[in-house]
Amino acid sequence: MMKKTILLFALLATSFLSAQDEVKLNITDALALKTVTASYEHYFDQQTSLGVSGLFNFENESSDFRYNENVVITPFVRHYFSTESLWNFFGELFLAYNTGDQDSVVNGFPVSDNYSDGALGLAVGYKYTSPGGFTVDIHGGAGRNLFSKESPRVVPRIGVNIGYQF
């Protein structure tokens, strides 16, 4: 049993040490809204990665446009369909734990309900990777909240990220 545990640990450590990592920031959220979305992505090989994004919404509730979500934590897995060019098409499967305020009308009066929910979704996009490690990815998709009646049905996943691979 001990030999199997050591072998499994060695294989996992080797895969993490030989792979690339990337950090990135969603510039569309940062420039257009008072929202910060930062991501970390770990590559297992040239075509498969696992990552997590965190969205934090600082926009006022009275703003003309803002995300419903105040906080969204999104683990994701990506598959890159090509590796020959600088621009690569990818598909993404994600989960999104999201919290926020949903406005509704009860007995003719506006009411704001706090919610927490989990969504499952898909996204697609293109990523540019320079030889020096600079990255730009453009992606779009949506997830569906699964558990709460107070939450919005759809969780968006859109943006333009800039980042760096190391």
Keywords:
single chain, 166 residues, mainly beta, 2 helices
Structure, explained:
The chain is mainly beta and 166 residues long. It is built from 2 helices and 8 strands; from the N terminus they run αβαβββββββ. It has helices at 2-18, 27-32, and strands spanning 21-26, 35-43, 48-57, 69-80, 87-106, 109-129, 134-145, 154-165. The chain has an 8-stranded antiparallel β-barrel with strand order 1-2-3-4-5-6-7-8. A hairpin with a 2-residue loop joins β5 (87-106) and β6. The mean pLDDT is 88.
In short:
This protein is mainly β and 166 residues long.
Helices and strands in order, then pairings?
Elements: H1 2-18, E1 21-26, H2 27-32, E2 35-43, E3 48-57, E4 69-80, E5 87-106, E6 109-129, E7 134-145, E8 154-165
Antiparallel strand pairs: 1-2, 1-8, 2-3, 3-4, 4-5, 5-6, 6-7, 7-8
Largest sheet: 8 strands, antiparallel, barrel
* N-to-C SSE string, H for helix and E for strand: HEHEEEEEEE
Morphology? globular
Characterize the quaternary organization of these chains.
single chain
**Strand arrangement in the largest pleated sheet:** 1-2-3-4-5-6-7-8
Low-confidence region ranges? none
What would you call the structural class? mainly beta
Q: Could you tell me the strand content as a percent range?
A: over 45%
Rg from alpha-carbon coordinates: 19 Å
Span between termini: 35 Å
> How many H/I helical runs?
2
